[in-house]
Protein backbone atom coordinates (compact mmCIF):
# COMPACT_ATOMS: atom_id res chain seq x y z
CA UNK A 1 0.00 0.00 0.00
CA UNK A 2 1.13 3.51 -0.77
CA UNK A 3 0.89 5.98 2.08
CA UNK A 4 -0.93 9.28 1.70
CA UNK A 5 0.19 11.84 4.20
CA UNK A 6 -2.71 13.65 5.79
CA UNK A 7 -2.60 16.93 7.64
CA UNK A 8 -5.53 17.07 10.07
CA UNK A 9 -5.92 20.83 9.65
CA UNK A 10 -6.44 20.45 5.88
CA UNK A 11 -8.77 17.56 4.99
CA UNK A 12 -9.48 19.35 1.71
CA UNK A 13 -6.01 18.31 0.54
CA UNK A 14 -6.65 14.58 0.65
CA UNK A 15 -10.12 14.46 -0.91
CA UNK A 16 -9.00 15.55 -4.39
CA UNK A 17 -6.14 13.03 -4.21
CA UNK A 18 -8.61 10.25 -3.47
CA UNK A 19 -10.87 11.43 -6.31
CA UNK A 20 -7.95 11.46 -8.77
CA UNK A 21 -7.02 7.95 -7.66
CA UNK A 22 -10.57 6.70 -8.09
CA UNK A 23 -10.76 8.15 -11.59
CA UNK A 24 -7.32 6.78 -12.51
CA UNK A 25 -8.47 3.33 -11.43
CA UNK A 26 -11.63 3.67 -13.56
CA UNK A 27 -13.98 3.18 -10.62
CA UNK A 28 -17.32 4.89 -10.24
CA UNK A 29 -18.35 6.81 -7.16
CA UNK A 30 -21.11 4.29 -6.55
CA UNK A 31 -18.74 1.30 -6.71
CA UNK A 32 -16.19 2.86 -4.34
CA UNK A 33 -18.82 4.08 -1.90
CA UNK A 34 -20.48 0.66 -1.77
CA UNK A 35 -17.15 -1.19 -1.30
CA UNK A 36 -16.09 1.29 1.39
CA UNK A 37 -19.40 0.93 3.21
CA UNK A 38 -20.39 4.58 2.91
CA UNK A 39 -23.00 6.47 0.96
CA UNK A 40 -22.26 8.09 -2.39
CA UNK A 41 -23.11 11.46 -0.80
CA UNK A 42 -20.39 10.91 1.81
CA UNK A 43 -17.90 9.99 -0.92
CA UNK A 44 -18.77 13.18 -2.81
CA UNK A 45 -18.14 15.19 0.38
CA UNK A 46 -14.81 13.42 0.91
CA UNK A 47 -13.70 14.05 -2.68
CA UNK A 48 -14.54 17.73 -2.27
CA UNK A 49 -12.47 17.83 0.93
CA UNK A 50 -15.47 18.53 3.11
CA UNK A 51 -15.95 17.32 6.65
CA UNK A 52 -16.53 13.60 7.03
CA UNK A 53 -15.63 11.00 9.60
CA UNK A 54 -12.01 9.95 9.52
CA UNK A 55 -13.11 6.32 9.33
CA UNK A 56 -14.86 7.16 6.05
CA UNK A 57 -11.71 8.73 4.65
CA UNK A 58 -9.78 5.62 5.71
CA UNK A 59 -12.34 3.25 4.17
CA UNK A 60 -12.16 5.07 0.81
CA UNK A 61 -8.36 5.11 0.87
CA UNK A 62 -8.24 1.38 1.64
CA UNK A 63 -10.74 0.62 -1.14
CA UNK A 64 -8.39 2.44 -3.52
CA UNK A 65 -5.41 0.42 -2.29
CA UNK A 66 -3.91 3.19 -0.20
CA UNK A 67 -3.08 3.69 3.44
CA UNK A 68 -4.08 6.93 5.06
CA UNK A 69 -1.25 8.38 7.11
CA UNK A 70 -2.56 10.18 10.14
CA UNK A 71 0.79 11.30 11.49
CA UNK A 72 0.28 14.86 10.36
CA UNK A 73 3.74 15.03 8.82
CA UNK A 74 3.96 16.81 5.50
CA UNK A 75 6.14 15.38 2.72
CA UNK A 76 8.46 18.37 3.11
CA UNK A 77 8.89 17.72 6.83
CA UNK A 78 9.50 14.02 6.18
CA UNK A 79 12.16 14.93 3.59
CA UNK A 80 13.86 17.32 6.02
CA UNK A 81 13.78 14.67 8.75
CA UNK A 82 15.37 12.15 6.38
CA UNK A 83 18.06 14.67 5.36
CA UNK A 84 18.86 15.38 9.03
CA UNK A 85 19.17 11.64 9.73
CA UNK A 86 21.48 11.19 6.74
CA UNK A 87 23.59 14.14 7.89
CA UNK A 88 23.81 12.72 11.42
CA UNK A 89 24.97 9.39 9.97
CA UNK A 90 27.67 11.17 7.93
CA UNK A 91 28.83 13.10 10.98
CA UNK A 92 28.98 9.90 13.04
CA UNK A 93 31.00 8.15 10.32
CA UNK A 94 33.40 11.11 10.12
CA UNK A 95 33.81 11.11 13.90
CA UNK A 96 34.54 7.37 13.81
CA UNK A 97 37.21 7.87 11.14
CA UNK A 98 38.86 10.62 13.17
CA UNK A 99 38.85 8.38 16.25
CA UNK A 100 40.79 5.85 14.16
CA UNK A 101 43.20 8.59 13.12
CA UNK A 102 43.66 9.52 16.79
CA UNK A 103 44.39 5.87 17.61
CA UNK A 104 46.97 5.70 14.81
CA UNK A 105 48.57 8.97 15.95
CA UNK A 106 48.80 7.67 19.51
CA UNK A 107 51.15 4.94 18.25
CA UNK A 108 53.68 7.69 17.40
CA UNK A 109 55.34 5.56 14.74
CA UNK A 110 56.55 6.23 11.20
CA UNK A 111 53.07 5.84 9.59
CA UNK A 112 51.63 8.28 12.16
CA UNK A 113 54.33 10.83 11.42
CA UNK A 114 53.78 10.40 7.66
CA UNK A 115 50.02 10.90 8.09
CA UNK A 116 50.69 14.07 10.10
CA UNK A 117 53.10 15.30 7.41
CA UNK A 118 50.52 14.74 4.67
CA UNK A 119 47.87 16.57 6.73
CA UNK A 120 50.22 19.54 7.20
CA UNK A 121 50.89 19.58 3.44
CA UNK A 122 47.14 19.61 2.79
CA UNK A 123 46.63 22.58 5.13
CA UNK A 124 49.51 24.39 3.43
CA UNK A 125 47.84 23.75 0.06
CA UNK A 126 44.55 25.11 1.41
CA UNK A 127 46.34 28.27 2.50
CA UNK A 128 48.41 28.65 -0.68
CA UNK A 129 45.46 28.25 -3.03
CA UNK A 130 42.86 29.85 -0.77
CA UNK A 131 40.82 26.62 -0.81
CA UNK A 132 39.47 26.78 2.70
CA UNK A 133 38.37 29.33 5.25
CA UNK A 134 41.22 30.91 7.21
CA UNK A 135 39.46 29.82 10.38
CA UNK A 136 39.78 26.13 9.44
CA UNK A 137 43.36 26.62 8.28
CA UNK A 138 44.29 28.25 11.59
CA UNK A 139 42.49 25.67 13.73
CA UNK A 140 43.97 22.70 11.87
CA UNK A 141 47.42 24.28 11.93
CA UNK A 142 47.16 24.61 15.73
CA UNK A 143 45.96 21.01 16.09
CA UNK A 144 48.65 19.62 13.79
CA UNK A 145 51.56 21.47 15.47
CA UNK A 146 51.62 18.89 18.27
CA UNK A 147 53.63 15.68 18.35
CA UNK A 148 51.60 12.62 17.25
CA UNK A 149 50.59 11.52 20.76
CA UNK A 150 49.46 15.04 21.65
CA UNK A 151 47.84 15.31 18.22
CA UNK A 152 45.82 12.21 19.07
CA UNK A 153 44.59 13.90 22.26
CA UNK A 154 43.77 17.08 20.29
CA UNK A 155 41.68 15.12 17.80
CA UNK A 156 39.86 13.34 20.62
CA UNK A 157 39.23 16.66 22.35
CA UNK A 158 37.66 18.42 19.36
CA UNK A 159 34.75 20.22 20.98
CA UNK A 160 31.19 19.81 19.81
CA UNK A 161 31.02 23.37 18.51
CA UNK A 162 33.89 23.00 16.07
CA UNK A 163 34.42 19.23 15.97
CA UNK A 164 31.85 18.41 13.27
CA UNK A 165 32.97 21.32 11.08
CA UNK A 166 36.65 20.46 11.47
CA UNK A 167 35.99 16.80 10.72
CA UNK A 168 34.04 17.81 7.61
CA UNK A 169 36.93 20.02 6.45
CA UNK A 170 39.69 17.61 7.34
CA UNK A 171 43.25 17.55 6.05
CA UNK A 172 43.15 13.78 6.55
CA UNK A 173 40.62 13.32 3.72
CA UNK A 174 43.09 11.44 1.53
CA UNK A 175 44.40 9.30 4.38
CA UNK A 176 41.21 8.48 6.27
CA UNK A 177 41.24 4.84 7.36
From TrEMBL:
The organism's superkingdom is given as Bacteria
Q: What broad taxonomic lineage does this protein's source fall under?
A: Bacteria, Pseudomonadati, Pseudomonadota, Betaproteobacteria, Burkholderiales
Q: What is this protein called?
A: Transcriptional regulator with XRE-family HTH domain
Q: Which SMART domains match?
A: HTH_XRE (SM00530)
What InterPro entries does this protein map onto? Answer: Cro/C1-type_HTH, Lambda_DNA-bd_dom_sf
The HTH cro/C1-type domain is annotated at 18-49
| Pfam family membership, one | HTH_3
Q: Which organism is it from?
A: Rhodoferax saidenbachensis
